[in-house]
Amino acid sequence: YKIPPDFFTAGGMSAAIALVEALKKTGGDTATNKLIKTMEGMSFETPKGKMTFRAEDHQAMQSMYHFRIKV
Fold it and tell me: Both ends of the chain: CA-CA distance in Å?
């Protein structure tokens, strides 16, 4: 669309990468409980750097950066 991606584009890509990596590890098995177990503690590379799902509460952990945008 001839504009730079917004802040949410990398988040969507990260979610897609997480699913692909989990499916690789389960051999394509999409059973909910198997995917949950596989993703607990799983680390993978995203457009924003390494992301890890914390096993105890399933939170996606990643480095965060604070910045300002000036028009």
Answer: 20
Q: What is the pLDDT along the chain (71 residues), one digit of tens a residue?
A: 898 888 788 889 999 999 999 999 999 999 999 999 999 999 999 988 999 999 999 999 998 877 888 87
Question: Amino acid identity, residue 52?
Answer: T
Which is nearest to 55 in space by CA: 67, 42, 71, 46? 42
Alpha carbons 48 and 32: distance in angstroms, whole number: 26
Q: What are phi and psi of 69, to 5 degrees?
A: -110, 130
Cα separation, 18 vs 24, in Å, equals 10
Q: Do residues 30 and 23 make contact, with C-beta atoms less than 8 angstroms apart? A: yes
